[in-house]
Amino acid sequence: MSEAEHYNYELPSNLIAQEPLAKRxxxxxxxxxxxDGAITxxxxxDLADLLRPHDLxxxxxxxxxxxxxxxxxxxxxxxxxxxxxxxxxxxxxxxLAHTRGRxxxxxxxxxxxxxxxxxxxxxxxxxxxxxxxxxxxESNESVGSLLLAVGRVPLPGYIRGGRxxxxxxxxxxxxxxxxxxxxxxxxxxxxxxEELLAELAARQIAHASVTLHVGxxxxxxITADKLADHPMHSEWCECLPETxxxxxxxxxxxxxxIAIGTTAVRTLETASQSGVIGEWSGPTDLFIxxxxxxxxxxxxxxxxxxxxxxxxxLVSAFASRSLVARAYNEAIREAYRFLSYGDAMLxx
Length: 348
Prior knowledge:
The chain is 20% helix and 28% strand. The protein is α/β, with parallel strands linked by helices.
């Protein structure tokens, strides 16, 4: 068995959640204790009882942009679909594109709005890394305005084939989303409500924010046999002074740092590579795998992840490969809901 295969498992398709729960915090919560391997079944709404006074939860405040694009090829009239990834250094849009046939440099795509009305022409000007394209819209509007006009919720393909339903624009966004830039939601944060945050605060459990703009590569499977041969993707993240101080104050009083999601882990640990947490703003290609020395994060609340991904590796580094495998087997046996709209696990 290859090294990467240790992070694989059989995910029954019927356990992949296709719709969000009516109430976010009603999601089930598998509580996994690293000290003795105990596994118990709770709900996210129980979090105030599970955490301790003076603990600090750290959330990712990135905001998902309406990145899914629909249009037609002006040369052939064929249907075209795209996914906005980021703005390139040149100001061009970096995006993924899918259509029948082969796209050519210089082609034009007419993007349509949600009503199917022609809205803006997109010129495909060059190829970019990772199978992406660079494109330039024929418009003076800002990228934010254009995406609001023509973009859809960028649901992953395992949710209804990416088809948007009414309510997705609200439910595929965390309640603390502030900073535009993500191509996918930081899914552990989807379980939180303002009421739950208030309940936590009443128990003297505060929260602080980091930002990591989730990219599409985070969901891609590891194709290399050895983890060292996997080209780790880069994402932009930020840890501001107020969060650094909140973390340090929590540590001084003996509280724990609870990361809400793998993206919060990646940001906090990127900001702690000197040995202690400090300010950080910029890209990170930190690959957290077994043997990694966690310097800041004490507990992790995370969704259940796709097999053979760097997210599975990160979770296995935080707990252990055997304990995570046992927890996933238990979740499958108990029919937990998996992936973005699914249930969660608290590793303490």
